[in-house]
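Our preliminary data section would be incomplete without showing what the modeling component actually yields. Below, a chain of 537 amino acids is followed by its predicted structure, encoded as tokens that our downstream tools consume directly.
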Amino acid sequence: MSSKNKQGFLQGVVTLMFSQVLIKILGMVYTLYLTNREGFGDEGNGIVASSYQIYAMLLTISSIGVPNAISKLVSERVALGDHKGAHRIFKIAFATFAVIGLIGSLMLFLGAHVIAYQWLQIPEAEMTLVALSPAIFFVAISSVMRGYCNGRQNIKATARSQTLEQIFKTALTIIIVEIVAIISGVSTEWMAAGATLATTVATFAGFGYLYLYYQTIRKEIAKEIKSTVNYQYERVKTIIKKVLLVSAPIALTAIMSSLNKNIDSFTVVRSLKNFMSEGEALAQYGILGGKVDMLTNLPLSINVAFATALVPAIAGAKAKNDTATITQKTSFSLLISMLIALPCTVGMCVFAGPILNLLFPNASSGELILQISSLTILFTILDQTINGVLQGYGKLMIPAISLGCGVIIKLILNIVLVPNPFFGASGAAWASVACHTVAFIIASTALRKYVKLDLPISKIFIKPVIAVTIMGICSYFTYTVMLHFMAEKIATILAITLAIIIYGLAIVSLKIFNKDEILQIPKGEKILKILEKFKIY
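Predicted structure:
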């Protein structure tokens, strides 16, 4: 594999990684705004959240799994030089999911009254459902376009469209809610509808960017189609069947992930009420499903770039029987995922209390639950990367099966542990750790069966553990010393900053990356020259 291809893969990953972090930060901004907005608060969040559950269900059916499915099928055609076939897959998939998305939008729009009054029994949710309904159509067709861009190794287009969508969503949420508040006299119902309208407009903006980008590369696509070799004509029906067969198992994985989250919503409060008041039980669930989930999901947004980029990369390599590329990209991605996961796990465990005090000064409880939940980060991140490889390799059902087994374990442990006063809400956190551990074991076992890895134990485990141990000890010691001289919040920020620096220096000093791997990183040549100048390499 050429150096250019290696660079392209990593540059796409880095772009998507920064995009996902920015998206999470922007998401936190408008969430904090809505929660603290007079007249909105918990009631408004309740209306919006109830509507989003229905929206998310229809979205799972209409578009979840579509980007990875399209990117896999397109990259396989592109790898063989069949650009005409790749573009034909895109056009047919676009038409198919435009119809599916339109049906989903109409179902939500026409059924809003029945859903709000009879299903949810929250009449105020009717307008939020109506405002959200067009978003299903735009997300469905945008998903096909993102899949086509990813399949052509244009990951940056996907990252930019997602970032633009979130910027619009954040800005428009604040603007529209403020306008609606003035017009309606601070009506919570209408403000909630305004917040979801912002989501719809933002999805249109994301689609708008992708459409304009597609127009700019049409000449390039036309040239590629003229240079097509190995064209294989397939009937429209066959292509639609292929797309649906590939996207369905990926959507099933998303459904399993959703079920995993819903287990807590169905069991925790109900079980905790056996030995504490309903208010206390709700507060405990709020810690688990609110603060802790938000914090432990942040590292996943950084790593999701690998899962996204690996699907077309592995699919393309497999189409050409390029086992060396599959081994190289899988091994390198798993190493990076391990290096992301370990410090996040250890840092969140060691600094659980200070982090909660820093971010939630008025509601900082939940240290133990966060410490336990931080253990899920390691297994979830590695599993995320493995699933990207397996989906690209064509083993689409394995991620769904592995997570499904984990969900069963999670349900059993929730039922057993949460009603026990000794465990309480922390029992649900332990159940989540068990769930993701089981999913990781099954998925990693399957990965080793299909893909040869080039990861010595010292490289993937021993050296990263040494690096993160040095980081943990030094940063925590510094934190305890600084507490004698400054405020806790400042000490926390400085200690976390120091931890990042120490961890980076430890990775370099232990030479976890070889020279070839450093060259794969964007600006790798410059980085290697600096390291050689200081005689580290």
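The chain has 20 helices and no strands. The radius of gyration is 24 Å. Preliminary results of this kind motivate Aim 1 of the renewal.
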